[in-house]
Amino acid sequence: MSATMTQAPGQEKKETTVKVTVKSWDSMGKKFLKPQEDVDARRVELKGRIAFFISVKQAIGRGQPTTDSEITDADGTVYVVKKGSSTGMGEYMATVEKKAIEKKP
User: Fold this and answer.
1) How far apart (Å, rounded) are the C-alpha atoms in residues 55 and 66?
2) Over the stretch 51-67, which tens digit does the pLDDT of each residue have?
3) Is residue 52 within 8 Å of 65, Cβ to Cβ?
């Protein structure tokens, strides 16, 4: 393996299979659709970024992770989809950021 092909420590790709809830954002109606629960997904972490990959078979309609949708993992952590797109290989990819916790007064 050449020096250009090695990964720096801490930059390894981490991939896990998880169950998530997808709350799709309807940009036309400016509202969230009814959540789609128990969706199988692959969570991939690479270079400090997180992405979820969801099968198009499960992401039909309200389970499609479009931009501004929310994905909640089994631990209750909520992620906001910053970019949602089809991979063209039978999956939707959702690049996400952890949702800021709203502080109550």
Assistant:
1) 14
2) 999 988 877 766 788 89
3) yes
- Helix, strand, coil abundance in the chain, percent, nearest 5: 5, 50, 45
Name the one residue in this structure whose structure tokens are 């631990």. Answer: 75
Q: How many CB atoms are closer than 10 A to CB 71?
A: 26
90: phi > 0 → left, psi -120 to 50 → alpha, else beta; which?
Answer: left
So where are the chain's domains? Answer: 12-98
Q: Please tell me what DSSP assigns to residue 88.
A: S
Question: Could you read off the pLDDT of 87-102 as tens digits, one per residue?
Answer: 888 899 999 999 987 7
Is the domain spanning 12-98 CATH 3.30.300? The answer is no
Residue scoring higher pLDDT (14 or 101):
14
Residue entry with tokens 């400090």: 48
CA distance 59 to 21: 11
